[in-house]
Amino acid sequence: MIEKSITPSQPVDPELLERLRFYLPYLCDPILSLEIVPGASPEIRYTCAEENSCALIEAMAHALLGGQEKAEHLNPHHPRAVFDNRTAPCACSHDILPELLSGDHLIAFGPGQYGMGNLFLKTFKYFERECARMTLKQNPQEFVYPNLIPRDLMEHSDYANDQGRGYTWFTPSAPGDPLAPGSPAETPEHLGKPAVCLHCYPHFKQRTIDEPVTITTQGRCYRYEGTDQFSPDRLWEFIMRENVYMGSPVFVRDSLKAIETLTTGWMQSLGLRAWVQAADDPLKASGASFAASENIPVKWELRIALPASGGSLAAASFNYHADHYSQPFEISEGGQSAATGCAGFGIERLTWGFLAQNGLDTAKWPDAVRQEL
To answer: What is d(CA 225, CA 240) in angstroms, rounded to the nearest whole number?
Structure first.
């Protein structure tokens, strides 16, 4: 174990040091722990396993603090190994949606609204089970949260800004007491939540985390994708499973990498044409202006090819929040705001991506899936 410290040569804004505390471990895998020791001349103390990692760590620290080596060490710095299986063959290249609809595998009820049956439902259940088995390998606490989330909670902590787009609002009223048009009670009170992790942070509000926390949860999510969206990869209502991580930046980083490795190993075993890339819609995490200005990707996604259209869909994402959720909900670790992150999986999207590449003839499917149906 190598223990080192860095003392900035010039005064540094405390907010910038706090950003460094969250982002340097996230960006630099060799870091095993990191602590900012405040004072007139603050110290950045870190540990790593090998002496030859120190030069990189210190160069990146100076880059994050705006040193002269910034352009050289930070902009191209993310030498991240990513999964890429885009050369995998696909058994199916035609549009299977008409077959799914004619065979009651999917039942269309309008834009973004499908029921599931027969082979689609059986395949969905496979992905639901396997996703649960995979996420449980991280030994999480399991919770079930409501599908609705109060309006005032969604308006807290910039949730609304994070989740963007259209909402599905619910206004409860007493039976037999319809709301009068224009009445104050018509103001929407609850939202069909757009991500299942959103209850985790108020659940742990004002808690001190003595040991790292991993949570797994599954539920229904709601996102309005527009009235012209008839494809199964743009549902208004869908099932999502998420693992959520709370603790030190190193713990959250390592947990995200571990679940990503499990996920890509699963995709590889199924022979899916899939890959991981930085997301086009970057997460708006705390210090987003800092992260964006330094070209720091905090959201990565698993994409699955759709051969018939030549496009792809995002079926999973791996997200680093820094202290965006922990700070407003006062979730602390080691006397400071904890780091959080999450990995989310769209079960219908995994199902649709698999079927789009393999077709409906189960004889041509991978044994691992066919035997589980």
So the answer is: 16
CA distance linking residue 56 with residue 360, whole number of Å: 50
pLDDT in tens, 86-133: 999 999 999 999 999 999 999 999 888 999 999 999 999 999 999 999
Q: Are 43 and 7 within 8 A, CB to CB? A: yes
- pTM (predicted TM-score): 0.89
Domains and CATH numbers, the chain: 2-73 (3.30.70), 97-172+188-370 (3.30.930.10)
Task: Give the tokens for residue 336.
Answer: 């400071």
**Within 10 Å of residue 259's Cβ, how many Cβ atoms?**
23
pLDDT in tens, 221-270: 988 777 777 788 889 899 999 999 999 999 999 999 999 999 999 999 99
- Supply angle C-alpha 22, 244, 136, rounded to 5: 130
Secondary structure string (H, E, C) spanning the chain: CEEEEECCCCCCCHHHHHHHHHHHHHHCCCEEEEEEECCCCCEEEEEECCHHHHHHHHHHHHHHCCCCCHHHHCCCCCCCCCCECCCCCCCCCCCCHHHHHHCCCEEEEECCEEEECHHHHHHHHHHHHHHHHHHHCCCCEECCCCCEEEHHHHCHHHHHHHHCCECCEECCCCCCCCCCCCCHHHCCCEEECCCHHHHHHHHCCCCECCCCEEEEEEEEEECECCCCCCCCCCCCEEEEEEEEEEECHHHHHHHHHHHHHHHHHHHHHHCCCEEEEECCCCCCCCCHHHHHHCCCCCEEEEEEEECCCCEEEEEEEEEEEECCCCCCCCCEECCEECEEEEEEEEHHHHHHHHHHHHCCCHHHCCHHHHCCC
Residue 246 to residue 321: CA distance in whole angstroms: 10
To 10 degrees, what angle do helices 249-270 and 118-136 make? 140
Amino acid at 30: P
